[in-house]
Amino acid sequence: MYGMREPTESSFSGPGLRSWSKFDNDDNRFGNEKTKKLEQEMERQLFETGVSQGINFDMYDKIPVELSGSNPPKAISSFREAKLHKQLEYNVEQCKFAKPTPVQKYAIPSILTGRDMMACAQTGSGKTAAFILPIAHQMLERRSSSDSGNNRRQSSFRSRVYPRAIILAPTRELAIQTEEQTRKFLWKTGMTSVVVYGGVQTGKQLRDLRNGCEIIVATPGRLHDFIMRGVVCLDAVEFCVLDEGDRMLDMGFMPQVNELIQKMPKKGERQMLMFSATFPPEIQKLAQEFLQDYLFLAVGRVGSTNSFIRQTLVRVNARNKFEELVKLLQDCKGLCLVFVGTKRDAGFVENQLVREGLDAISIHGDRSQEEREHALAVFRNGKCPILVATDVAARGLDIPSVMWVINYDLPNNIEDYVHRIGRTGRCGNSGNAISFVTDSNANILKDLIHLLQENKQEIPGWCEEMAQGRGGGYYRGRSFPFGRRPGHGEKDFRRSQPNYSNNFVSQRFNEGYRDRDAKDDEDDKGKHRHWNHDPEGDTQNDNGYSRSSGNNRRDHTESFGGGKDSSERDQHQNYKTFKKIRD
Ligand SMILES: Nc1ncnc2c1ncn2[C@@H]1O[C@H](COP(=O)(O)OP(=O)(O)OP(=O)(O)O)[C@@H](O)[C@H]1O
């Protein structure tokens, strides 16, 4: 029988800890001193991970928010206001979450009312808790009201698992991390979660599943595998989350995700939630297939970065990129994540750095899962403070003390840039992102310049020249061809659909947003209510979210050299830039 084992030292992690978490405070039948101590230790270990909130945390309240769709509920201003189950309140306290972030303020009440949701908020701003808490609350409520939710008993009879919630993630490491986070919130609720992902033997995951669970966090391939083997059945799914929703719906994942969703109860009988920091309009359109009467939440502009990350562009010559990297790394304090374009380059750069005497390790798709997890572990604990990575580490990973993200190779699209640099500057902490730019990067520069302008970052003169030279001029100011800013996602795409819905409203909070989007709004088809309501009573927007004007940009032609290939002067200036950033 599950849940009847006395916990042992070895149950500090993995399923042992999960099964112990089924005990409720009042139901501790081993109430002796030793057990209590063990339980306290398990609790301490469980809650000690995660990024502590940084000095900029209160700035989140000033970020403009848009909530659109029919009958949107009122935001909460404290976790208490959400009236979560008392064990969940306790677990939130243990996580040291003093107050909700904006995405939590708006998403928690929306999800609690049973609505589907597409939510877009900056990297590191607490999206994970924004969906897990209201899901866990509803599962607890429904279980206590109907007392029919013991899926474990049911599943052990049928030797099949019937999860009530599925959370899909694009990478194995993110799935592992999200399940760890889920475990915190489920602590002592009597509910458990299991993570399943590819690249490792199925044995342990199978045993965990057979012990029963309410929530499965998974990468799509492995979950599909377990369904085909008759281990998991999705008939009883009440909640489905696509974490990094835009990635889960892009061409790489869409067929698998679609197949999984088809195995769940149909629209309206399950709650569908999609979260990401980026949601390009074309992906929003695709997502319609899975959503019903959903609320769209945008914290800040869809696809933007947070303003706590200092972003710097450095012009380099492809030939001496590596030397530039070494120079830079010698001066970087704290953990440093270096993104490269290919798996081969990841191995190559790692080896070269080690030869230079630097403590580097790499993570990419050609490494075994064991190696990938080892690389992340030694990076996390600081034994190897430089992690060279492909985009496998670009999304979702929440690692404290990542002070630097270096784009050794820039990605091909702005969404990947946003996610990559979002590994630093999390939860109100400051961070630095440095991107090497070569002649072959002209394709991303327009979007990048726009993003930097928006966040009041320095834009070197050579960069503007480069963007203009290649693309026939980049877009400055408010008017963009085809009525949309280049490249990345914007607002709720339904607003531009004719007669979307009679009940459709779009509410805005922190009115600084108006400056930026005023013109777009006039053209929108939906009805808009502009409310002055602000749950924190703060309507000022001074965090740089209104689009920057030309005044915010300095002319850096002088300090970064001209538009030709990286010259000696460039290199000297690059060094000066590194020094400035470091100091
Ligand atoms: N209300 C809160 N108060 C303090 N810390 C919080 C709060 N909410 C979340 N955090 C912490 O902030 C960190 C980032 O949260 P999370 O990983 O959920 O961000 P995210 O928005 O999902 O980021 P990404 O877009 O990169 O996936 C975590 O370590 C989490 O524990």
Automatic annotation (TrEMBL):
Residues 324-467 form the Helicase C-terminal domain. Keywords: ATP-binding, Helicase, Hydrolase, Nucleotide-binding. The keyword ATP-binding applies. One of its GO terms (molecular function) is RNA helicase activity. Residues 496-509, 538-551 have a biased composition (Polar residues). SMART domains: DEXDc, HELICc. It catalyses: ATP + H2O = ADP + phosphate + H(+). Its EC number is 3.6.4.13. Residues 108-297 form the Helicase ATP-binding domain. InterPro entries: DEAD/DEAH_box_helicase_dom, Helicase_ATP-bd, Helicase_C-like, P-loop_NTPase, RNA_helicase_DEAD_Q_motif. Residues 21-35 have a biased composition (Basic and acidic residues). CDD domains: SF2_C_DEAD. The keyword Iron-sulfur does not apply. A motif (Q motif) lies at residues 77-105. Signal peptide: none annotated. This is RNA helicase. It comes from Reticulomyxa filosa.
